[in-house]
Amino acid sequence: MTIERSGKKNPCWFYLIMILLPVIIILLLELSLRIFHYGGIYDQWIPAGEGRLTLNHELAFRYFYNTERVPSANHNYFDEVKQDNSYRVFVMGGSSAAGFPYSPNGAFSRYIRKRLELLYPERKIEVVNIAMSAINSYALRDMLPGVLEKQPDLIIIYAGHNEYYGALGVGSVETLGDTRFIVNTVIWLNQFKTFEFLRNIIKYLSSMFSEPVKSDGTLMARMSQRQLIPYRSEKYFAGIDQFEGNLRDMLEIAKDEKIPVILGRLVSNLKDQKPFESYEDGNYPAAEEIYQLAWAELNSGKVTEADSLYRFAKDLDALRWRAPEKINQIIEQLGKDLNYPVVSLDSVFNIESKYGVAGDDLITDHLHPNLKGFQIIGREFCNTGIVSGIFPSNYEKTYSLQEQDSITLSRYEFTKLDSTIALYQIIILKSDWPYTKEKISDERKLELLNMQTYSDTLAYLAGKGDITWQSAHLKLAQHKLLRGDVDLFNKEVSAAADEYPFDPYNYEFAAQLLVNLKMFDDAYIYLRKLDELKSGAYSTKWLGIIDLLNNKVDSAIKYLSTSLNYNSSDSQIYYNLAGAYSIKKDYQTALQMINRCLQIEPNYSMARDLQQQLLSATGSRR
């Protein structure tokens, strides 16, 4: 007996369900994960209060998968709804663009903001620095759409040094391989909770069979894991291709959106930073050998020849924390291809350097400029913005370019604390690999820091991240004020307020200290600024009280009455209002105020005395 197979086919809906079922399962999983708030929040922008946004400090987790201590950008705030008179600039890049080790207020973005404020006094200037340490063109490409959504008037890009060891670079501990399409696709998938869930499962399983990435040491040491990349090797070219492809994508997208971009050629310490790893494979000479030849040429007065040799020695350095010259060539070529200006910062640094080749006089380590160097970068970007016509043409033309620079520098709020923070950052950086082959103990690092004052301790804690930069300045301000140094108190508060001009806390902190010390005239300035930013019960109350002390009665009544709108249960406000109306001889209103005061605080002895006087003045009985 034989059984015949049915020739009946499955209906079309059966195959449709088979195709849609995995999609439906994934969508339900994604929805469930979002409902239960699984994982982190990696939106590019997060609210910063008062209708402002800032870059999400958790954003780096989009690009760092194995590193626990990830970098974050400076907290630059900008309006969620762009104002009509706003001129908005975004600065993108790695640690040099972020201002290390002078971050936040020594970054070249600070110079640009102050220069633009000089040029356009009637406009609201927003220079938003979203640069971060140890990121490269992958992260910048990913962040660009979010930047474009915020209606920039200009984008400044200074990047390329982190292309090999920055997050997702070809030589990084965080690499996902050499294929740009795959890496950019993974970054795109990171926006989905399902992908994050799967990524965390894989990370957990892999941790069971491998050692975790070391979390000690500097970020520079952790990211490279001592991986060498010889000159013109496969990984060398992979890094070049990665940078060129990502930067081209960014510039083409910006061009489509008609957004101006200014690019900067990269600077590095050519003269005084010898190659980290002198690799010799028979095809090219050792980097150290070329570096010594460069010194010989410089000592002979042949600056041009020396510069070429120094650059070649840098290219031969197998530890690629300084971008090879090919990166600068790509920046130059893409600028020409897409008609975007390129600032020859490397040439400017050579001109500004004492010996004609960039060295320690303008650079703190292997590539991060010192304060003067950052100011030069800011100056050159601004000059290019003016000369190229990218900046609006209706700028303040009273001053020459040189005068603009001089005035901008005079308006810097930069204190000794900032210099100490930068010094300590560099000492710590150079106390680890690759600057030293042997690990330096924490005790030895503390000896090198040579902390002697309270300011030094604050600088150390701020550099470590144990306290914020803002908190360090305000703590030092308080310390100086309690020792009677009002000038240094004002200087430290001004530094914090200049960095965060829309944060009322700086002014509130200063005003409260001064009020508590009965330094009312000094407090009044900060109270006014606090009231302009965020009017409230405290600012209006003390503005009113101080005005009353200075016999500005009408102003006192205005402020004190406003304060009641915020807090109608403060007996001190009613007491001072009673005093103000008494001076105006409005004794009935004054009596109403003092009666209300005593309802709130019956044992207020001074108020009872004033009540008796007002009862007598009005002929009233208790």
Helix count equals 26
Helix content: 40-55%
Fraction in beta strands: 5-15%
Mean pLDDT: 92
What kind of sheet is the major sheet? 5 strands, parallel
| The CATH fourth-level homologous superfamily of one domain | SGNH hydrolase
CATH architecture descriptor name of one domain: 3-Layer(aba) Sandwich
CATH class category of one domain: Alpha Beta
The separation of the N and C termini measures 120 Å
Number of strands: 8
* Helix-strand makeup class: mainly alpha
Overall spatial form: globular
Poorly predicted residue ranges: none
Order of strands in the sheet with most strands:
5-4-6-7-8
- Could you tell me the CATH topology label of one domain: Rossmann fold
Output the radius of gyration: 31 Å
Structure description:
With 622 residues, the protein is mainly α. Among the domains are: 45-269 and 323-410, SGNH hydrolase (Rossmann fold, 3-Layer(aba) Sandwich); 413-493, no CATH class. The protein is built from 26 helices and eight strands. It has helices spanning 12-35, 95-98, 108-119, 137-149, 180-189, 193-207, 219-224, 234-256, 287-299, 303-316, 325-337, 345-352, 371-387, 401-410, 416-429, 442-449, 454-464, 469-482, 486-499, 504-516, 520-533, 537-549, 553-566, 571-583, 587-600, 605-618, and strands spanning 45-47, 52-55, 78-79, 86-93, 124-129, 154-158, 261-264, 342-343. Strands 5-4-6-7-8 form a five-stranded parallel β-sheet, sandwiched between helices. Strands 1-2-3 form a three-stranded antiparallel β-sheet, with no helix packed on it. The relative contact order is 0.07.
